[in-house]
Amino acid sequence: MKFTDGYWQLRPGVTARYATSVADVDVADDRFTLYAPVTRVRHRGDTLNGPLVTVEAWSPAEGVIGVRLWHHGGRRPRTPRFPLATDPDGGPAKTVREGSTVELVSGALSLKAGTGDPCTLEFRSGGKVITSLGPRDLGFVTDADDRHHMLARMSLGVGETVYGLGERFTPFTKNGQSIDIWQADGGTNSEQAYKNVPFHLSNRGYGVFVNHPGKVSYEIASENVGRVQFSVEDQSLEFLVFAGPAPKDVLRRYTGLTGRPALPPDWSFGLWLSTSFTTSYTEETVSRFVAGMTERDIPLSVFHFDCFWMREYQWSDFVWDPEVFPDPEGMLSRLKERGLRVCVWINPYIAQKSPLFAEGMAGGYLLKRADGDVWQWDKWQAGMGLVDFTNPAAREWFAAKLRHLLGQGVDAFKTDFGERVPTEDVVWFDGSDPERMHNYYTQLYNETVFDLLVEERGEGEAVVFARSATAGGQRMPVHWGGDCESTFEAMAESLRGGLSLGLSGFGFWSHDIGGFEGTPPPAVFKRWVQFGLLSSHSRLHGSKSYRVPWDFGEEAVEVTRDFTRLKHRLMPYLFHAAVEAKESGTPVMRAMLLEFPEDPATHTLDRQYMLGPDLLVAPVFSEDGTVEYYVPEGTWTDVLTGERVSGPGWRRERHGFRTLPLLARPGSVIPFGAVDDGPRYDWADGVTLHVYPGGADGSETVTTVPARSGAPAAVFTIRRSGGETVVETDSDLAWNVVVVGAAPADDARAHPAGALYQAPPGTHRLAVPAAGG
């Protein structure tokens, strides 16, 4: 929200008060508090008839410093609040007062405050100032409508760029944007967002989380081009600064407080096929689709039933439409016999025509107005009410309906909606503040569903397909990008949103392959298939038209088959990246900045990404197959063609529909599984290590192949020395090594990628010639 009119003036009706100087300081061992008047105090009389801004600093974990400022502190605590963990391994913070400054130190991060005139805050990490707040950067503002806003402004350095703030489809770097953290159902081509997270990350090696679940208004190098400003309509404002130095370190610290994702089940990494939204479908349609995939040799892991599995005007009542699906248990059993998992669409809205509306109203499970009536409107579903998840009984009631579906054979739920939550004339069961609950509602909704899946299926088997989220929502994977059009432009904006979400602490992300609105031209569909199957999760889904590959031509079938099978072979690599997301908060799909923070050319890249640590993916966004992408330093190898590419530099290539730039990092070792007809198998049994050129002589690489639990199933140590590559392992299973680009020696045989060396079961060491380059 903008308060100023240029540099010199305020907007009409706006009054601003900033912490000008420091009148007093309280210093404890692990925190300090500043009492800052908003005018300069020349004599005792100036202490009268004026406010103080109180500023408290503390550290909840090593390398993290929190700042809370408030004007009037007499307000009752508002709920909901983001639950934040503390770091059990973090060392205690300490304060040091020296002359006119007081400093709070937490690991590599410190906050130095001026205790005189002016009032300043300066954050340092690694001996450098990373950001600061000056005399006009902390305070409060009243606007023309007499609304009270607390605000903070943090400096931006030369060349500093800002990322994150949730899944945003606007430009990837957020500099120059005004952003409101406010859940909205706005599609993927607007400034609105389904997933709003008040956390931003800087390429200078720090992140900032505004600990407020309601509306947070950002001005990012917009109102003041040298500042990131954030404000809330409240009497207090709290933010936490996370040290790096690398972006991955920032995400590790941030997710250490807000939560890290659970590990999704292995089967969820396979291909999902949907009925689509308003298309006509019956069990015969579903069977035809599944059989069609089998006939075309395209492995399928999950079948998804979208909204109309239930009767119209009755969403959500969780009852199969008897005219369309007269035998749901039998149908689900028949799908299970084909080896499929089943997902069904749900939302937290209860239509008036549904018998559940009266049941929910009688039980007090629906959101009420101030006069005690149920809150209702006619958008989406006629006369719908909203499940009040702040009521524990309502959560159990809702979960019980889903538990019945799990008993029928359903495995996962697409938790759609959760954004259009009213703030006027509503009373939540637990007394939550309506403005704060607007964004937070989705957290309770997804928690209810995810916790049920964990309870019924066990940890490691629970997965949702969620559209809305806020800070902490990453704990309940997976999230998908929402309603996009079926164009190359929408494909690119979807990727921007996914990369933005990954830099907001979310480890797993998907999108509608082919686009949702409209019907994609065959070229768009085939290119989106490549992109989708090189994402953490992959779903074919549309609105008014089907997304079965044969509707887009025989070549679309071939592309879908090839890339589905490629993804299955990459499961040892992908699932290890998933474990990394669970353990450290690093997303599976990574903005280039995350892997190459020292290369400034990567800081604005939003049409390519790293899939895990070692695979560079550059989706093709053009009709004729032309793609431009950037290659960081070193000798990279195209996984699909074997071509070697040298960086740093830009590449311009033209690809047919069977390829795209998919490059292995210099010196990387990528494990390929032995099975390509599904994601669930023993990844360590028969694994083939592809050793790519570019590794330095004397270098050592450790490659871990996980088990389904996430624990290591096999660990390989690869050492390069002279003209030899030595592989050692603790595995007793059979395994193989491909030296990529090498001609087969006497003890090797030819492989499309190079020379293949086989290690029979029980082999723990293998020495092979190294590839040149």
Name the beta content range.
25-35%
Question: Architecture of the largest domain, according to CATH?
Answer: Alpha-Beta Barrel
* CATH superfamily caption of the largest domain: Glycosidases
Q: What is the name of the CATH class of the largest domain?
A: Alpha Beta
Distance between the termini: 54 Å
CA gyration radius, whole angstroms:
27 Å
Low-confidence parts: none
Biggest beta-sheet profile: 8 strands, antiparallel
Which structural class do the helices and strands define? alpha+beta
Q: Helical residue percent?
A: 10-25%
Number of distinct beta strands: 46
Q: Identify the strand order in the major beta sheet.
A: 4-5-6-7-21-18-17-15
Shape: globular
Average predicted confidence as pLDDT:
96
Tell me what you see in this structure:
- With 773 residues, this protein is α+β, with helices and mostly antiparallel strands.
- The protein folds into four domains: 13-72 and 92-155, Immunoglobulin-like; 268-568, TIM Barrel (Alpha-Beta Barrel), CATH 3.20.20; 589-664, Golgi alpha-mannosidase II (Immunoglobulin-like, Sandwich); 682-769, Golgi alpha-mannosidase II (Immunoglobulin-like).
- Helices cover 19% and strands 31% of the residues.
- The chain has eleven helices and 46 strands.
- It has an eight-stranded antiparallel beta sheet. A six-stranded antiparallel beta sheet has the order 3-13-14-20-19-16, with no helix packed on it.
- Strand 35 and strand 36 (644-654) form a beta hairpin.
- The longest helix is centred in the middle third of the chain and has 24 residues, at 434-457.
- The radius of gyration is 27 Å and the shape is globular.
